[in-house]
């Protein structure tokens, strides 16, 4: 799979190691399906952030973790992404970790 982002950048966005991202992108085994999905979500997030990344200034990473219905988490994502460019000159890059349900331990 071709992608326009360095493995290091994808790993940072996904919160995974570079080796794990490399295994996913090159179709090697030993990676859970949920981990592979995190890598693909990180690439999609980087695509959406492409317009923001061109801004100059200090870069901040934030993680948004939500357990809520998809309609609510989608609205939160859209609202946050609409506001991020207004934080110029700082660049705020977001990583989203959404699920509708989950075990208590997680």
UniProtKB/TrEMBL annotation:
CDD domains reported in the protein's UniProt record: HTH_LacI
Domain spans labelled HTH lacI-type: 7-57
Pfam families: LacI
InterPro entries hit by this protein: HTH_LacI (IPR000843), Lambda_DNA-bd_dom_sf (IPR010982)
Protein name according to UniProt: HTH lacI-type domain-containing protein
Organism from which the protein derives: Streptomyces thermoalcalitolerans
